[in-house]
Amino acid sequence: MKRINFFVIFVLIFVSCSDDDKPIVEYLDITVNHYLVTEYIPAEHLEYLIKIGDEENFNRQISEIENFDFEDGYVYELSVLKEYPDPELVGSKPGYSLLEEKSKSKVAEDTQFKITLKNSEGASFVKGNVTTGFTILDLITVTCETEDVCTKLQESLENDNKVIGTFTHAENGAYNLIGIDVD
User: Please, which residues have CB within 8 angstroms of residue 24's CB and are 6 or more apart in sequence?
Assistant: First the structure.
């Protein structure tokens, strides 16, 4: 029994004195796309759509970049510091801090983009209705290209499992809904 206790104490001391609990830090060049996307884990929120380095597609999402002032309708080239605060903690998300804004390029006014408005788990990111108007999480105003599109949005949110909106940028950071896809 004494051997087991000694072994347990030895292991605890060895682990607690480990130098591995320092944060992992990376310097990255990323591109931030011109619009925000919806996410529901751990709660409903908006995230940046990014690609790292020379990746072809915007397929990664991050929720915050410290000291970065995002403006819809612009693609950004950034240098960032990515830091994992506790690499041993399961589910630990890295933090990002802006080091340099290398470029900011406005996209064409007719550039289309898609955003999930209701996911297959039933989480709706849209607030409002045809009468009061729509927003995405009370943060982005949704305008509709036609009244029919707004009506279809409301019906789709009530009746369909997954709803994806096709948008263009509108004035004052609003997203102009031009079409709906459903599953």
Answer: 83, 84, 87
Tokens of 55: 């990746």
Please say if the pLDDT value at position 178 is more than 60.
Answer: yes
CA distances (Å), origin 59, targets 25, 32, 65: 21, 11, 17
**Residue span of the structural domain in which 154 resides:** 113-182
In the three-class reduction of DSSP (H, G, I as helix; E, B as strand; rest coil), residue 25 is classed as strand
∠ CA(84), CA(19), CA(2), 5° rounding? Answer: 125
Say how many domains are in the chain.
2
Q: Is 87 helix (H, G, I), strand (E, B) or coil?
A: coil
**180 vs 40: CA distance, rounded Å:** 20
What pLDDT sits at residue 41? 81
Residue with tokens 């009530």: 158
Could you give the maximum distance between any two Cα atoms of the chain, in Å? 79
